Amino acid sequence: MFWHHAIEAVGAGLGTVLGNLQVIIVGLVAWLLLGERPSRATMLALPIVLVGVVLISGVVGAGAYGSNPQLGVILGLLTAVCYAAYLLTIRRGGRDGRRPAGPVAIATGMVVICSFVIGRVVGDLDLTPGPPSIFWLVMLGVTSQSAGYLLISVSLPRLPAIITSVILLCQPVMSMGLAMVLLGETPSSTQLLGVAFVVGGITAATIPVARMRDGLQRLRSPSAA
Prior knowledge:
There is one protein chain. This protein is mainly alpha-helical. It has eleven helices and no strands. It has helices spanning 2-10, 12-19, 22-34, 40-56, 69-93, 101-122, 131-155, 161-168, 170-182, 189-206, 209-220. The model has no long low-confidence stretch (mean pLDDT 80).
C-alpha cells in the first residue's frame, strides 16, 4: 500500500527504485538483530544511496517529476522497510522447498484482509472498479503478484544471497525504463542522477567482485545442481 501511494506521488519508476532500498535495509536489520556486521562496502555505499534519495526527492534542482516528490520518497522508504521484512520472512518461511506456494498464499490472504480494513478506514477502497481496471488488476494478480512472487519464494532458499541481490537489482532499472517508455514519465536530470546514485550504491554494497565470482562458481558446480 505504501508503494501504490508512492507511485501516485513520485511515479512508478522512481517509486520502484526507492522500494529497492530494501537491500540496504536488510543489511542493517541483520546488523541490529542478528549481530551480522555490515561489510565495509555496505557502509561506504550508504551515504551514496542517501545522496541519491535526496536527489530523487526534488529538494535539489528544479522540475522534479511527481505530484509530491518529497512525500513519494517517504512512502518509498516505508515501502523498502516492508519489502525487506517480506523477503526476510519468505526466506525463513519458504525453507520447505516442497511447498513454495504456501507462504505466498498466506501472504496474499493477509494482503486481502489488510487492504480491505485499511482501505475502509482511510476511505480509498474502490469496491466498484470499471471493466478496464478489473482487467489490468487481474493481469497484475496473475503475473507479478502471483507468478512473480511464487518464483521469488522458490528461488530465495536455493540461491546464494549475492546472486539474489543481483537479480533483484534488475527490477528498478527495468521499471525505470518501462515507466519512461510506456507511461511517459519524465524524471528530471537531477532525479535520474539520484537513480544512478541509488542503484550504483546498492550495486557496490551487494556485488563485491570476489563474492560474485564465488557465487557463479557455486551455481556452475555439479553439487549446486
